Structure formats: C-alpha cells, structure tokens
Amino acid sequence: MKTISILKLFLFFGITVCCAILFNIKIADVPPLGKFLSPFTGFWQTAENTNSIKNFILINSGLKENVNILMDEQGIPHIFANNEHDLYFAQGYITAKDRLWQMDFQTRYASGRLSEVVGKKAIELDRYQRRMGMVFGAEAMLKESISDSKSRLIIEAYSQGVNAYIQKLPPKDYPIEFKILNYEPETWTPLNSALLLKLMSATLARGTNELAMSNILKNYGNNVVNDLFPNYPFKEDPIIPKGTIWEFGQNNAKVSIINSPVIADIENTHNKKNDDWLFSSRLLTFNKPENIGSNNWAISGNKSSTDFPILANDPHLDLTLPSIWYQIQLHTPNLNVYGVSIPGAPNVIIGFNENIAWGVTNVGSDVLDWYKIKFKDNTHREYLFNGKWRKTKIRIEEIKIRGEKSIFDTVYYTHHGPVSYTKNTKPDQFNMTNNIPENYALKWVAHLPSNELRTFYELNKAKNYNDYREALKYFSAPAQNFVFADRQGDISITSNGLFPLREKRQGKFLLDGNDPTDEWHGRIPYLENPTIKNPTRGFISSANQWPVDQTYPYYLGWEFAPYERAHRINTQLDSMHNASLNSFKKLQTDDYSIFAENIIDTLINSIENETNLNELESKSLSILKQWDNRYRINSIAATIFETWTTELYNSIWEDKFNSKESLMRYPSRDRTIHLLLYEPESQWFSSETEKRTRNQVVIAAFKAAIQQLKNNYGKQENWEWAMVKKTHVPHLAAIEGFGSRVLKVGGSKHTVNANSEKNGPSWRMVVLLGKSVKAFGVIPGGQSGNPGSKYYDNQIITWEKGELNELLFLENDIPNQKGIINRIELKNNP
Amino acid sequence: MILFILIIVIAFITQLFLPWWIIVPVVLLCCWAKAKTASSAFIISFMSIFLLWLVMSLFLSFPNDHILANRVGLMLGLPEASYNWAVVALIATLPGALTAGFSGVSGFFLRKILSNN
After folding, report:
1. Is the pTM of this model over 0.90?
2. Does residue A696 sit within a domain?
3. pLDDT by residue (tens digit) across A610-622?
4. DSSP A451-506
C-alpha cells in the first residue's frame, strides 16, 4: 500500500516538476508560458491603466541638478533641465522608459547580434551586418564623436540616462517583447547610439546596383547601357532649379579630375584582365524597388499668409510599430527645441525652435562602391594594390547564438574596406546578399569617421541661416536634403553629406581594387555641395530627385528617384499665394499622379482600336477614361492603372533583364516612359521569339492586368485602391496582433502622399515660423512602444485621415499648464 | 474551504516577490497539511490558482480597457473579436492551475506516506 503511494508521489511530483520546467523555458518560438501568462510576472503587468497616469520622482546620482519632465496629452515628454548634461541624461531616461525594447532590438539588428536572442535563424543576417562593416562604421563614428568634447558629453549623458532607467527596472516591468523572447535588457553604451545612426545609413544609403550594371554591360554591351541606363533622366525637375549658375568648379584644381578623359570602355578593361570569375555569382534576380519617397519644402514670407516662411517635411520609411520616431521637447536656458528623435540617439533630428525649422529627405547619391580584390592566395592575408602586395587587416567576429556554441567569422579588411564575401562564401538562401559581388571590397561612406551628432546639436540651437550652414558641415552620412527656414525670412536647401569626389564613370559599375586611379579622390568640398538660399521663385523643395541639373561640375551619381513627386510639389508651390497650414496639409496628402498624367493618353490610344475586348475589359477601359489621375481611397481606376502599368513594365523587361544566371535590373521608369511615348516601334517591345509592337504589348498587359484583378479580388467593386494596396503598420519583429489594421489611405509610390503596403510618411510636420512659432505634426503610431498602452497607436487615426496635431511647444515648466497631464521629476542625489 | 483560502492567500503573497513556480512548494505544503483525497487535492489546488490568476489578470486588464489582452489574443492566433480578452484570461490561467493541481496531488500523497508512519 505504502509502496504504491510512494510511486504515486513520484509520478505526480514528476509531472509537477515537468510542468514547472516546461512552462518556465522558451521552446522554439513559444515564450515560457507560466512566466509569460502569470499575472504577477507576465504580460499582464505591462497592461497600462488607460486613465490614471502617475507623477513620480527618480533620484539618481548621475544628475548635476534637478530635471522636470512634463508629459502632455499625447504622452510626449517636455524636458526642462538646467544644463546640457542633465538634458541628454533625461532624454535617454525618458526614451528608454517608452522605447527600451525597440532600442535594444534595433541595436542588435544593426550590429549583427540578433542570434543572441532569437537563435540560429538569424545567423546569416548577423553575418551580413558584420561583413558589411556595421560595427566597424559605428566604431569609427564613435571615435570621431568622442574626440569632440561636445558630442562626447551628449552621447555619454544620454547613455547614463538610459542605464539609470534599466538599473531600476524590475523583470516584471520589462517591455512585453522581452517577455515573449525571454531575455533581459543589457547595459546601454554610446556605441549603441552610433549604431542606430549607422542603421539610418544602412536603410537609406546602402543600395547597390554595381553588380547588376556590370552584368548588363557584359551581357549587352556599352550601347545598350547608354541607351537604357542613361546618366540623366529625360524628365527632371532638380532640387536646385535648372539654370542656377555654379560659381565654383572651373578654376578648382580638384575639378580637373572629372574633366580628365573618362576611361572609354569598361568592358575591354575587364576583358583584358581575363578574369573568368569577375561576373560569376550565384545569384537570384530581383526587381529594382521603387524609391521610398520623402518630401520637404518651404516657402518664403511673400508667398505665405503669415508673412513668415512656412516649412513642411514628411520623411518616408518602412513603417513599423513601435513608431520609428519619438517626439520630444528639449529645454535648457540656452536651448529650446521640439521635434522627432531616433529612439536610442540624442538630439532632435527633424524639428524647430523659436527661430528656425528644418527637415530632411534622402539624397540618393552614389556613396558605395565595390572594388575587385586579387588575393595572393587562399589565406587572404595579402592583396594586390598598385602592383604591390599589401596586408589585409583581420577582424574576427564572434556571433553568439542562443542555446548553442558561438560561431567565429573572419572578415578581411583592405584599405578600401571589408571584403564582404570572399569567393564561395555567400549563403544560397539569403537574398540580402544577392547584389553583393564575391571577392570585392566594400567602400562605403558610412565607414568613414564622422560626427553627425554635432550637426543635430548645432541645428537644435541654431538661430539663423549662418548657424544652419555651420551645423551642416559636420554631416557625412546618410546624405540628406536639409530644408531650412527662419523667422528672419530666409529659406534654404542643401543636398548635404560627404560626397566622394570621383570621375563620372566611377560607381556605376564594379571597380578595380588594384588600380589607384579607381580610388575616391577625396570629397566634394562641403561649400560646393548643392545649395541654394532665397531663390527668386520664393520656394524650395526636395523629393529625393536629382539635386542638380547637368551643369553641376561634380559627379553625384547616375540615378535618383523619379521626378514626378518633385514636379507636382513644385507646380503646386509655384501657384500658391497666401499659403497657409491648410495648403501645406493638402499638398502633403496629395494623391495626384504625374506619372498617370504623362502616360495615360498614350496607353488608352494604344488600346482604342482593339476590338477583341470582353465585357469586363471594356468596362475597365471606360472607367480609366474618366479617371482624374488621383489615387483616391475608393478609386477603381487607380487600381486598374497601377496593375496595368506594373504588368506592362514587367512584360517589357522581364525576358531581357531577369535571368537566373546573372543578376541584372530593369531600366528606370523614366526610361520606360520615354520608350512608350516616343519609340513605339522599338525592338525592346519584342521578345526573343516574337516580334511585337508597343500597342500589342500594351493590350496584352491590359488584358493580363484585368484577369489578375478578377482572380485576386473578384467583382469590380472590390477593386478599390486602398483595399488593394492594404497600407498597414506592422510590428518591428512582425509579432501578430501588435501591428495596425489595414488603413484607408490614398496615394501611391509616385504621388506626393507616397505610400505602399508597408511604407509611407513616418512623420508629417508643418512649421509656421513667426513671432511665436506654431507647429503641427503626426506620426503613424504613438509615443509609447508598449502595445499595452493607449499611446502605442493613438496617432494612427489622425495620420490615416491626413490630419495633424498641434504640437505643444512650451516656454516654461509650470506643471499645471494647459495640455500637461503629469510630471516626472529626476532629482539629483548629492 | 480552508485549504482553498490558505492556498490563495499564501500563493498571492509569495508571488508578489517570487517567480510564478513558487506555487509548486506552496500548494505542495498546503495539501500536505490539509488535503483529504487525491481528487479533492487536485481540484482545490487547480481552482485556487485558476481563480487567483484569473482575478489578478482581470484586475490588471479592466483598467487597460483590455487593449493588451486583445492584442495578445491575436498573437496567440485567436480570430479577431472584441471578447478575446476573456478567452485570453481563461487560457492564461492554465499553466499555473495545471501545475498547481499536480503539485496538490503530490502534496496529498506525501501526507499519506508520512501519516502512515
């Protein structure tokens, strides 16, 4: 009897222990269920009370004096500090309080340390980030930044503030994603802030077409490259208006480099070397993605209803929750600035103060090159440069993997930069490496020492045009079009960053790492970067298009975002008089398509005489004929046009530039439009087996598009544009349920209100300068990174409607003023 | 009933400071002291933690307007519905309640062995 009881005890106690253990560990992607579901330690603890928000006090010895943080109705902090150290300490503290997991995860993503928390599925991603030199670049940046005492103070105080928050954080209060992935936050370092700035370069300035272009050159020759991939588009509306005179260039010694004869025939150069592996790559093809579209502009006082300049900016990125930007006001006796910051990095990146406002869009200049490396042998210890053997530097990357042994990866660095993938080391199933050639060294502007922190610090406290110009000289990467306006009435825009000084052919194709003439020849002098102040037309703008016309004396690249958004903005601004907040709001959400305007008549005429249309096709055609070229939320014509032109684009180029053997890319939209409008008999419409004319291709594409829409969406009333496009904001780690619903927004990739499925304006801002500045803004999300907070996505509805919130720009820290709902005090502990 | 209340009170207090699995020794000791049969030990232990976790979860979820619980519902693969929070709250009790149930039975057999002496 007793033996049976003992057996039963063992049995049940065994089951109990098994349950306790199983529910306390993470198995595959399932969080530890006991720990995660317990209301005492698990996710319930992160469910914020939606009504009561507590004031609280933190005492920390890292502060010099007391700091007051006032929180407004949107959950936005307004920090009042007496000195700069305390200001950036508080910025770090409050940002960590709202966004700790996002900061941790993005730093891990940038530095190739995701495997530490998600296990071996992230190994190739981690390896890629290391091999692209992300940490190498961040270290160079940090070294340069901390040699500047101002930047050092800022970045170190910020880290201290983040750590002050982490140290006091009990596990039950960890953000929910830490609980789902079952890991702990770690100590924050200044390198992390540098990594997040490098991540911006990776997002905006790491695109590379060199391999694809070299393959096209090899497969089709020089004439086709010149014909289909020209160095300037046929339609352009540059940032610096056409015809602007460049007052430098001809007498500058550095310019002579670009005037020297361009090396005539790259193909021959390569053939001469007789390298059979030069173009070999184990690659899949990809379609060139449409450029993500940011806009900014400003008008001078004589065009505005306020008599002062008005400035607008909407930077576009891949949208995520937690939101990409963190709104904040920073105040000391010498500084008062409001705007958006990068969670994990100090300062305001886009914003305004009493005197000035500024904003940015990306400059799609070519700042990345690949240099072919000839190694002496398989040890990769030496490589050929200028006919002599040079030693490589070796960097050993330890990739820690959760639950498994670390792997060690060796990366060889030449004086150009890291050889990202030596021969036969590229992974087969990892498409981020598709466009990377093997045995090539990466030369990338984001690897160079830089001090962007200082730019933002100086902009944050700038008072006028001269301060703005002074601030910009510190900025290297990712190059941005900095739009500027101040209350004295000046407006200006500068395409700013470190642009390598190169010959015109350089950068379009792969380069020779042995040849010193293929090197970058320094940089374009900062003062000669494209810039303009108070142009006669009374406004400035940018939308990622070409910064300059073809008279600019330096080479910036050969391809920028298409001109359509910029052209629409410029024609609208040109016709504006007495412009107000509403005119700017309307323009930011403008869904009119210049692309459609340029091409729809030609397309419809091509199909007009086709008699063989079925009922649905005829109906669709008549809908298109009545279209106003606007990508409205409920427009069916927009869906038909978009599907048709996408199908058309693919059907023209797919059989020519999509090959399993060698990675290539399609010609630009600009070139395709020219082909459609002016070259109806071009051989490019034909396929290998069949002679086709433009009209035949256009009709076939139309029929295919209608069939595709019918198959995917059924009845025509389901073809409404917003429902087909499905714009939504997913969670950063794609956790189901933590993203947004599908949002009803108009616009397309090439309208001013540029957006697609997961991409769109990450911040919309309008600033009305004047005796007292007024500003408006919205982010597609909210201030909090906590999915259990009402501030996680409370601004999404406003964003979806195209509305803006008035931004609360405080002058003092009186606690009970209008719009303020609670107060956090950081007290120094002497 | 005494056993039921005893478990709830001790489990509540200890879980405020200690990991969730502290309910294993708590339930074990309580059932060692008070349990009458194996099945009642299981039911009482299961129900006490079930109730404690459910009430505590709802206590946190109502002031949150169930924003988080509804999101976690979607994460767990529930179809979109406004009452997901209730389903989540019920499911969420299971790891704790099951572990407690088995621990309770273990406690009962421990009592049986030791009392035979």
Report:
1. yes
2. yes
3. 888 899 999 999 9
4. -HHHHHHHHHT--SHHHHHHHHTT--SS-EEEEEEETTS-EEEEEES-PBP--TTT
